[in-house]
Write a structure and sequence with these properties.
Layout (H helix, E strand, L loop, with lengths): L1 H8 L6 H4 L7 E2 L5 E5 L4 H6 L6 H12 L8 E4 L13 H18 L3 E5 L1 H4 L8 H4 L4 E3 L2 E6 L2 H6 L2 H11 L1 H16 L3 H5 L2
Parallel strand pairs: 2-3, 2-4, 4-6
Antiparallel strand pairs: 1-3, 5-6
The structure holds uracil (URA).
Protein backbone atom coordinates (compact mmCIF):
# COMPACT_ATOMS: atom_id res chain seq x y z
CA UNK A 1 0.00 0.00 0.00
CA UNK A 2 2.87 2.38 0.77
CA UNK A 3 4.00 1.87 -2.82
CA UNK A 4 0.55 2.65 -4.26
CA UNK A 5 0.25 5.76 -2.08
CA UNK A 6 3.66 6.89 -3.32
CA UNK A 7 2.64 6.34 -6.96
CA UNK A 8 -0.49 8.42 -6.37
CA UNK A 9 1.54 11.28 -4.84
CA UNK A 10 3.69 11.42 -7.97
CA UNK A 11 0.94 10.67 -10.51
CA UNK A 12 0.77 12.76 -13.71
CA UNK A 13 -1.79 10.67 -15.59
CA UNK A 14 -4.33 13.46 -16.00
CA UNK A 15 -4.43 17.26 -16.05
CA UNK A 16 -5.47 17.51 -12.38
CA UNK A 17 -1.82 16.87 -11.57
CA UNK A 18 -1.01 20.35 -12.97
CA UNK A 19 -3.36 22.23 -10.68
CA UNK A 20 -3.15 20.21 -7.47
CA UNK A 21 -1.03 21.13 -4.45
CA UNK A 22 -1.00 17.57 -3.10
CA UNK A 23 -2.46 14.35 -4.39
CA UNK A 24 -4.49 12.65 -1.65
CA UNK A 25 -3.97 8.87 -1.68
CA UNK A 26 -6.05 8.03 1.39
CA UNK A 27 -5.38 7.30 5.04
CA UNK A 28 -6.18 4.92 7.84
CA UNK A 29 -5.89 1.30 8.72
CA UNK A 30 -4.47 -0.62 5.77
CA UNK A 31 -6.19 -3.80 6.90
CA UNK A 32 -9.49 -2.13 7.77
CA UNK A 33 -12.80 -3.99 7.74
CA UNK A 34 -14.52 -0.84 6.52
CA UNK A 35 -13.45 1.44 3.70
CA UNK A 36 -15.08 4.81 2.97
CA UNK A 37 -14.77 6.08 -0.59
CA UNK A 38 -15.63 9.69 -1.36
CA UNK A 39 -15.47 11.74 -4.53
CA UNK A 40 -12.32 13.87 -4.76
CA UNK A 41 -10.23 16.12 -2.51
CA UNK A 42 -11.49 19.62 -1.82
CA UNK A 43 -9.58 22.76 -0.88
CA UNK A 44 -8.36 21.62 2.56
CA UNK A 45 -7.57 18.09 1.45
CA UNK A 46 -5.49 19.45 -1.44
CA UNK A 47 -3.59 21.66 1.02
CA UNK A 48 -2.95 18.89 3.57
CA UNK A 49 -2.70 15.78 1.40
CA UNK A 50 -5.26 14.05 3.65
CA UNK A 51 -8.84 13.01 2.84
CA UNK A 52 -11.93 14.48 4.48
CA UNK A 53 -10.31 17.15 6.66
CA UNK A 54 -12.61 20.07 5.68
CA UNK A 55 -16.24 20.69 6.59
CA UNK A 56 -17.46 17.44 5.00
CA UNK A 57 -14.70 15.62 6.88
CA UNK A 58 -15.83 17.18 10.14
CA UNK A 59 -19.32 15.89 9.52
CA UNK A 60 -17.95 12.47 8.56
CA UNK A 61 -16.07 12.43 11.90
CA UNK A 62 -19.34 13.16 13.71
CA UNK A 63 -21.07 10.36 11.83
CA UNK A 64 -18.30 7.92 12.74
CA UNK A 65 -18.47 9.00 16.38
CA UNK A 66 -22.23 8.46 16.38
CA UNK A 67 -21.62 4.74 15.82
CA UNK A 68 -18.46 4.56 17.97
CA UNK A 69 -16.30 3.83 14.97
CA UNK A 70 -12.80 5.16 15.49
CA UNK A 71 -11.55 6.95 12.36
CA UNK A 72 -8.11 5.34 12.75
CA UNK A 73 -9.62 1.84 12.41
CA UNK A 74 -11.12 2.46 8.95
CA UNK A 75 -9.54 3.43 5.62
CA UNK A 76 -10.75 6.61 3.94
CA UNK A 77 -10.07 7.59 0.36
CA UNK A 78 -11.65 9.02 -2.81
CA UNK A 79 -12.25 7.78 -6.34
CA UNK A 80 -10.29 10.75 -7.70
CA UNK A 81 -7.06 11.54 -5.88
CA UNK A 82 -6.48 15.15 -6.97
CA UNK A 83 -8.69 18.19 -6.46
CA UNK A 84 -10.74 19.27 -9.48
CA UNK A 85 -10.34 23.07 -9.79
CA UNK A 86 -13.10 24.92 -7.93
CA UNK A 87 -14.39 21.56 -6.63
CA UNK A 88 -16.16 20.87 -9.92
CA UNK A 89 -17.34 17.33 -10.64
CA UNK A 90 -14.57 15.01 -11.84
CA UNK A 91 -14.54 14.50 -15.63
CA UNK A 92 -14.83 11.06 -17.23
CA UNK A 93 -11.17 11.02 -18.29
CA UNK A 94 -10.09 11.98 -14.75
CA UNK A 95 -12.20 9.18 -13.26
CA UNK A 96 -10.77 6.76 -15.82
CA UNK A 97 -7.16 7.82 -15.17
CA UNK A 98 -7.61 7.23 -11.43
CA UNK A 99 -9.69 4.03 -11.55
CA UNK A 100 -6.78 1.61 -11.27
CA UNK A 101 -5.70 3.20 -7.97
CA UNK A 102 -8.98 2.50 -6.21
CA UNK A 103 -9.04 -1.01 -7.71
CA UNK A 104 -5.63 -1.70 -6.22
CA UNK A 105 -6.46 -0.11 -2.86
CA UNK A 106 -9.58 -2.28 -2.52
CA UNK A 107 -7.57 -5.34 -3.49
CA UNK A 108 -4.88 -4.59 -0.89
CA UNK A 109 -7.17 -3.65 1.97
CA UNK A 110 -9.68 -6.39 1.17
CA UNK A 111 -12.43 -4.77 3.29
CA UNK A 112 -15.61 -6.53 4.36
CA UNK A 113 -17.67 -3.40 3.84
CA UNK A 114 -17.26 -0.47 1.45
CA UNK A 115 -19.28 2.67 2.13
CA UNK A 116 -19.58 4.83 -0.96
CA UNK A 117 -20.07 8.52 -0.26
CA UNK A 118 -21.84 10.22 -3.14
CA UNK A 119 -22.71 9.20 -6.66
CA UNK A 120 -19.21 9.11 -8.19
CA UNK A 121 -18.00 6.32 -5.93
CA UNK A 122 -21.44 4.68 -5.93
CA UNK A 123 -21.41 4.37 -9.72
CA UNK A 124 -18.44 2.00 -9.62
CA UNK A 125 -20.82 -0.69 -8.26
CA UNK A 126 -24.23 0.73 -9.21
CA UNK A 127 -23.65 2.46 -12.56
CA UNK A 128 -27.32 2.96 -13.44
CA UNK A 129 -28.82 3.52 -10.02
CA UNK A 130 -30.06 6.68 -8.37
CA UNK A 131 -28.71 7.42 -4.92
CA UNK A 132 -32.13 8.63 -3.79
CA UNK A 133 -33.45 5.10 -4.39
CA UNK A 134 -30.70 2.89 -2.97
CA UNK A 135 -28.99 4.91 -0.21
CA UNK A 136 -28.51 2.88 2.95
CA UNK A 137 -29.27 -0.43 1.23
CA UNK A 138 -26.36 -2.88 1.39
CA UNK A 139 -25.59 -5.12 -1.57
CA UNK A 140 -23.13 -7.96 -1.74
CA UNK A 141 -20.49 -8.08 -4.51
CA UNK A 142 -18.39 -11.23 -3.95
CA UNK A 143 -16.65 -10.85 -0.58
CA UNK A 144 -17.55 -7.18 -0.24
CA UNK A 145 -20.77 -5.63 0.94
CA UNK A 146 -21.25 -2.17 -0.53
CA UNK A 147 -23.38 0.38 1.29
CA UNK A 148 -24.20 3.47 -0.80
CA UNK A 149 -24.66 6.67 1.16
CA UNK A 150 -25.16 10.31 0.36
CA UNK A 151 -22.04 12.45 0.37
CA UNK A 152 -21.63 14.27 3.72
CA UNK A 153 -21.14 17.54 1.81
CA UNK A 154 -24.58 17.08 0.19
CA UNK A 155 -26.08 16.72 3.65
CA UNK A 156 -24.35 19.93 4.73
CA UNK A 157 -25.79 21.85 1.77
CA UNK A 158 -29.22 20.25 1.85
CA UNK A 159 -30.44 20.10 5.44
CA UNK A 160 -33.11 17.46 4.83
CA UNK A 161 -30.44 14.91 3.87
CA UNK A 162 -28.72 15.21 7.22
CA UNK A 163 -31.13 12.93 9.06
CA UNK A 164 -31.03 10.50 6.13
CA UNK A 165 -27.26 10.07 6.15
CA UNK A 166 -27.30 9.86 9.97
CA UNK A 167 -29.88 7.06 9.81
CA UNK A 168 -27.96 5.24 7.05
CA UNK A 169 -24.75 5.41 9.09
CA UNK A 170 -26.55 3.92 12.10
CA UNK A 171 -27.17 0.76 10.02
CA UNK A 172 -23.46 0.17 9.59
CA UNK A 173 -22.63 -1.62 12.90
CA UNK A 174 -25.28 -4.24 12.24
CA UNK A 175 -24.15 -4.77 8.65
CA UNK A 176 -20.59 -5.21 9.86
CA UNK A 177 -21.60 -7.57 12.67
CA UNK A 178 -23.48 -9.70 10.17
CA UNK A 179 -20.49 -9.87 7.83
CA UNK A 180 -18.24 -10.87 10.72
CA UNK A 181 -20.66 -13.55 11.91
CA UNK A 182 -20.81 -15.01 8.40
CA UNK A 183 -17.06 -15.01 8.16
CA UNK A 184 -16.66 -16.79 11.49
CA UNK A 185 -19.10 -19.43 10.38
CA UNK A 186 -17.14 -19.97 7.18
CA UNK A 187 -13.88 -20.22 9.12
CA UNK A 188 -15.33 -22.77 11.52
CA UNK A 189 -17.91 -24.87 9.67
CA UNK A 190 -18.11 -27.26 12.65
CA UNK A 191 -19.17 -24.52 15.05
CA UNK A 192 -22.91 -25.09 14.56
CA UNK A 193 -22.44 -28.82 14.67
CA UNK A 194 -20.44 -28.69 17.88
CA UNK A 195 -23.13 -26.69 19.62
CA UNK A 196 -25.44 -29.66 19.16
CA UNK A 197 -23.32 -31.97 21.28
N1 LIG B 1 -15.12 15.47 -0.34
C1 LIG B 1 -14.69 14.28 -0.79
O1 LIG B 1 -15.35 13.59 -1.54
N2 LIG B 1 -13.50 13.85 -0.40
C2 LIG B 1 -12.73 14.53 0.43
O2 LIG B 1 -11.65 14.03 0.74
C3 LIG B 1 -13.20 15.76 0.91
C4 LIG B 1 -14.40 16.22 0.52
Amino acid sequence: MAQVEEQIRGCTMCDLSRTRTNAVPGEGNRSANVMFIGEAPGFHEDRNGEPFVGAAGQFLNELLESIDLDRSTVYITNVVKCRPPGNRDPLPDELAACAHYIDRQIELIDPKVVVTLGRFSMSRWFPKERISRIHGTPKRFGNITVVPMYHPAAALHQGSLRATIEADMKKLPQILAQMEAEENEQEDPDAEQMKLF
